[in-house]
Design brief:
The chain has 275 residues and is of the alpha/beta class. It has 2 domains: 6-52, no CATH class; 64-274, Rossmann fold (3-Layer(aba) Sandwich). The protein contains 9 helices and 12 strands. The chain has helices at residues 64-69, 71-88, 102-109, 121-129, 140-146, 167-177, 194-199, 217-226, 246-261; strands at residues 6-10, 15-24, 38-42, 48-52, 92-96, 113-118, 135-137, 152-158, 178-189, 213-214, 229-237, 267-274. Strands 7-6-5-8-9-12-11 form a 7-stranded mixed beta sheet, sandwiched between helices. Strands 1-2-3-4-10 form a 5-stranded antiparallel beta sheet, with no helix packed on it. Helix 2 crosses helix 3. The structure holds zinc ion. The site of zinc ion has 7 residues, from loops.
Amino acid sequence: MKSDSVSSFCPCQQARTKFSPVFTFHEKKAFPNYEDAVIGKCNHCGVLKTVVFPKNFNSASSRPEMYGKNKEVLIRELYPIIKTIQKSDRRNVLDVGFSSGILINELQKQGIDTWGIELNKRAFKIAKNKKIANIFNGTLKDFIKKYPRKKFDAVIYNHVLEHIENLKHEIDLIKQIINENGLLIVGVPNRRNVVFYLRGIFWESLMPSEHIWHFTDHYLINFLEKNGFYIKDKFYANHNRSSLPLLKRIYFNILVFLNSLFGTGEAVTVIAQMR
Ligand SMILES: [Zn+2]
């Protein structure tokens, strides 16, 4: 039996709307960290949102130590963003939700004036201990309050936007700190992909203990376009499943290959520019 719709905030109305449940995580064994979370679909715009949060929900969670262990892999994954910044000649960059600080570190090494914001206290402290310069603990709103005159040529939200409930409010803040013609680089999980279609509730990127939104690339692009940006470029990536047993790896490699045939992937990074 399908449960009743849930009332929750959606940017399409900038108000509470009705969400129809799509996934309910009641299988304790399969989803020990997601206790009874519900992901619903907005009856107006169709976006998927975690509308019932599990007990341990924390939208500011971050795993800086995990990134520390996989530094080489992560730098490779960040390479398209690093290359975009280099090519664009943007000299001053803000990384919102920097987590491990690896991206800041890489950009600073190349002489790019890079600043970072991180809400998660533990992640912030780890970056501080690594002596990464120009970092701030808090939200973008807190940062603007402290540095009301600071502006950036490029602003990066790499796997951060899906953690923020009021997207319209966030994008209005971004517009306050971005220079004319500034770049906004947004990376999010993209559910418009073959792995999600086949695996549904078991797709790793849903993570209802920390992700509020479950975007498609089309939704994100449309949202940015509606809010004063145009899209310059986009690129896709897929999960690294190199630690899985061989047969599973082959299975996922086939799905990832299908993703590339369909011109999609499990994550999308969109390069947008202010109009
Ligand atoms: Zn909606």
